[in-house]
Amino acid sequence: MTTTASHPTLAEVISVLEQMYDPFWARDWDAVGLVCGDPQAPVRRVLMAVDPAPTVVEEALAWHADLVLTHHPLLFRAVHGVPTSTPKGRIVHQLIRANCALYTAHTNADVAAPGVSDALARVLGLTDLVPLSPDPTEPLDRIVAFARSEIVGNVVDAVVTAGATTAGPFRGGADGDGGAGRERRVEVVSPRAARSGVVAALQSVDPEISHEVYELATSSSPRGIGRIGRLSAPTTLREFAMLVAEALPSTTQGVRVAGDPTAEVSRVAVCGGAGDSLLDTVRTSGADVYVTADLRHHPAFDLREHGGDGPPYLVDVAHWASEWPWLAGAANRLAGAMEVAGSPIEVLVSVKCTDPWTFRVPSPGGVVR
């Protein structure tokens, strides 16, 4: 890894980040990646936060960070300019003036394994995690070709260039001696979408080459939105809600619960961030309780109406709090990967709470009006 003044470049740090959180995994409506910054600038310090809020930027600049890595995008919806007269424009200009880059890993970090929901599940003590809503896996082919011994190298180079992801092993033909003119078996595994290109690559080396294509069975993806797992021992819904409150950072909202407080729960679904789009999935998942954020009245009401007095129960927490646990794990992974690469950096988790709610006024005496 090349470095500037013994430090990795921003481009090199991003390369490591994108192995952890591939931008290809992001939803098509999302805005991920580098927002501002010079890819060739050296990086010594990285500050991680949920939101690119003004308080976070101030913290980063006071610490002399070279990169701010946030979960939520700064420029999420259509933006046609970043003048300093706008809040987002001021942040962009502050960062540029301080030579501090901004990078976002949003839904690509949500679906990653490990990702945002894994971190939430872990702090709640869940094990045996699987995606709640798995991403579809890419269909694969196994392509077997029989190439003359003297062109095997050319065949391998051609199919890898065409998109094959695995090449080998090479085994002898019926006679097995591998001499000139003898055929050797070449196997590749390739994305099905690349099939025509890989076959064309084979034939570009030898138009007469013999080959066979086998469609591989689709396996479950480790990536996806949300996670589902189990507690080490069953507990009551009330006790579980208290566990959630203790495990997550304190917010004005606190923890809201829908369900019988004495009900037993052991199988738990979670989704860091806004998760009411998964309520139908939760209903059929076998989960006893679902922990997420930003639950709206009607979707929550409909789920509880369908379940009657039984599961799945609901635990609603603040959006920021549900995603905050991801920061520490991501920071450790990034720092560890850069250390292994021989270019250590400092990675710090922001201490700023960016939950937008500042106080709550309960109804006097809890009287329904």
Please, could you describe this protein's structure?
It is a single chain. The protein has 369 residues and is an alpha/beta fold. The protein folds into three domains: 3-111 and 325-349, Udp-n-acetylmuramoylalanyl-d-glutamate--2,6- Diaminopimelate Ligase, Chain: A, domain 1 (3-Layer(aba) Sandwich), CATH 3.40.1390; 116-135 and 224-321, 3-Layer(aba) Sandwich (Udp-n-acetylmuramoylalanyl-d-glutamate--2,6- Diaminopimelate Ligase, Chain: A, domain 1), CATH 3.40.1390.30; 140-215, Alpha-Beta Plaits (2-Layer Sandwich). It has helices at 10-20, 54-62, 87-97, 107-111, 116-123, 152-161, 195-205, 237-247, 279-283, 297-307, 319-323, 325-340; strands at 3-4, 7-8, 33-36, 45-49, 67-70, 101-104, 127-134, 140-148, 166-172, 183-191, 210-215, 224-236, 256-258, 264-274, 289-293, 313-317, 346-349. Helix 5 (116-123) packs across helix 12 (325-340). The radius of gyration is 26 Å and the shape is globular. The model is unreliable at 169-177 (pLDDT under 50).
